[in-house]
Every structure is written in structure tokens, then in C-alpha cells.
Design goal:
β1 (65-66) and β2 form a beta hairpin. With 80 residues, this protein is mainly α. The chain contains two helices and two strands. It has helices at residues 6-18, 36-45; strands spanning 65-66, 72-73.
């Protein structure tokens, strides 16, 4: 199993800080802080968003439009 990536680790640390752990984020350029080349590498290896059920990667389908005289239009120009 692959290790969590750079952004996953950053997200976890920010969550711990918000919970009151007392930790702080390292300043850019300090020892142990991610370098710009590490961010570039993380961007190259990032997974493309997959189709999740309304999870944000795929937009929630729009509700069908109700017509004035009954019926429902599912696709433009077609009446059911």
C-alpha cells in the first residue's frame, strides 16, 4: 500500500492544529519543511479526480424542468 502523499500529510496536520494540538506549520525554507521541488513532484503524481456520487468531482445532476402545461423535460426539446 502506498504511503499518504504530501498534501494528505499537510491536511492531517492542519486538522490536528485546528483541534488544538499546539503544533505549528513550518515556515518555507526551514529544516523539514517541504521544498518547492517536492510540491512540483506531488503535483505530477496527483491522481485525477474520479467520478464520485455527488462528492464534488462530478456535479450533481440538475432537477428536471417542469413545464407550464404539465409534463417534464429531461433533455432540451423533448417532452415526456
Amino acid at each position: 500500500m502506498a504511503k499518504p502523499g504530501l498534501y494528505a500529510n499537510i491536511h492531517k496536520k492542519k486538522k490536528r492544529i485546528a483541534a488544538g494540538s499546539g503544533e505549528t506549520m513550518r515556515k518555507p525554507g526551514t529544516k523539514g519543511a517541504p521544498t518547492s521541488s517536492q510540491f512540483e513532484q506531488a503535483a505530477k503524481t496527483a491522481k485525477k479526480p474520479t467520478a464520485m456520487k455527488y462528492g464534488g468531482a462530478v456535479k450533481k445532476p440538475k432537477k428536471p424542468v417542469k413545464m407550464k402545461y404539465g409534463g417534464v423535460v429531461k433533455k432540451k426539446g423533448k417532452k415526456k
